[in-house]
Amino acid sequence: MEAVRPVLLRVCRVVLVATLPATAWLNAPEARAQAPAAERAPDTLEERVRACIGCHGVQGRGVENVYFPRLAGKPAGYLYNQLVAFRDGRRKYVPMNYLLAYLPDPYLMQMAQHFARLDPPPLAQPAVDRPAQQLVDGRRIVTQGIPARKIPACASCHGAGLGGREPGIPGLLGLRADYVSAQLGAWRYGLRTALAPDCMQVIAASLTEPEVAAVSAWLASLPVDPGVRPAKTGGALPMGCGSQAR
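Request: output the structure for the sequence above.
Response:
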């Protein structure tokens, strides 16, 4: 039990810090006034989202060798949609579902815009040890799609540099293979859903398990170009996608 206690305390601290912004934002000035000034954290958005650091790294940069993705620099619309999806249960991950349960839409948008503006240096990508043919197959699907089965190339939506597209399509660089594979799997089996029309559910459900593994491996093998940012404009998408609804 003693070994578990520090972990529990850290979890409780994250929960408390994460819920303080909502309390402050939802008008509790009398509580703030009663607390000694030395005990009150600065009332800034950066301080309010400090609870995110434990998983997503300082400034949303990401954390080496773990599952959690980088938040910094992703389109604000995408980040907002994910925060709402976690809050409303369309994405399933208990800590996120719990922390966001009572936060209102305007506050979630502020959080999304905060991380979208950040641009910390990317983390070094770990080497991907996968069969050469698997990487070749992944590159082909990402850049060309599978025309015979009407599966569009990842690059046709996520951008030629895979840096994402405003307002709601994320970049695909700097993600671990197991993370990409898990998200595609979640879409395939309905554990993750997006605004209708849910284009990613259609695409992910059309891929075979080996194709998911190939796409995940090749994306994870790419270096992160710090100069790549989400495209502001782009051509028509190959299919309807609710995440791009303004």
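The CA atoms of residues 86 and 97 lie 5 Å apart.
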